[in-house]
Amino acid sequence: MQILPKTAEWLVSEMGYGEYEIKGDPMMLYRPLISVYFGAAYLRWLSNFEGKERNEEFVVRTYRFGPKKATHKSTLDYWQRYLSVKQNLPTRRKNIDSDSSVPNDPTPVVSVTQKTLDLRDSFKGSYKENFVILLYDNAKVGDAWKYWDSRASPEDMEDLWKHSNVLKEWVMSGEKRGKVQFSLDAEKRTYLSRHELKAVAEIIVSKHFSTGEIKP
Predict the structure, then answer these.
(1) In this structure, are residues 60 and 163 in contact, taking their beta carbons and an 8 Å threshold?
(2) What's the predicted TM-score (pTM) here?
(3) Number of domains the chain is built from
(4) Residues 12-32: pLDDT tens digits?
(5) C-alpha angle 178/181/184, rounded to 5°?
(6) Please, are residues 62 and 7 in contact by the beta-carbon 8 Å criterion?
(7) Residues with Cβ < 8 Å from 21, sequence gap 6 or more?
(8) pLDDT for position 213
(9) In whole angstroms, what is the distance from residue 43 CA to residue 54 CA?
(10) % of the chain at pLDDT higher than 90
(11) Any long-range contacts for 211-216 (C-beta under 8 Å, 24+ apart)?
């Protein structure tokens, strides 16, 4: 669920979610932890829209199209596609061809879905062009978008290395500290594995949530 720059700016200026500085650069929102942070903040706001506890369908249909389209027929297909793919996030695949190009598809690959309104259980993946959070612009995957280390802070990378499942996955795929490659799918598009996505969500929750509430 890639968040719109204007929504992220609103969350910073009006709602106080300033843990990650986007500095007017919309490409910052494609960094995994930043994307999940602002996505979680927006999910939390939608889940209690107008002071009422909202269900998963409301949140999904309004995340992309706004609260006015919560029950509109135009968002029904979006919701149904969400349901059909929410359990299909791929496992990690080693990046073999480092000079590959990304298809001319402006939509990134990895998704985050909301299973429940408890954000500790919210982030489950789906592997489709819907509900996307990251990872690339429609350009070649140069070094800037090839490595985790250029898309996350040293502190966040250390947290990822400490995550047992991510550590095991990265060691098995031959990743080295300071040069961890993103996975590529069959079309050479970058994505997060199940373990990576789960780790990112857990890091954001542990740092910025308290009893289910995100901390600005």
Answers:
(1) no
(2) 0.70
(3) 1
(4) 999 999 888 887 788 888 888
(5) 175
(6) no
(7) 28
(8) 54
(9) 10
(10) 32
(11) 212/118, 212/119, 212/120, 213/44, 214/17, 214/40, 214/41, 214/44, 214/119, 215/19, 216/15, 216/16, 216/17, 216/18, 216/19
**Model confidence pLDDT, tens digit, residues 92-127:** 655 534 333 333 333 333 333 333 223 333 333 333
Report the residue count for the chain: 216
Q: 157 lies in which domain range?
A: 5-214
Structure tokens at 142: 């140069």
- 3-class SS of residue 28: helix
Q: Concatenated DSSP letters for 69-90? A: GTT-GGGHHHHHHHHHHTT-PP
Residue for token pair 């789906």: 126
From 65, 41, 145, 56, select the one nearest 102 (Cα to Cα).
145
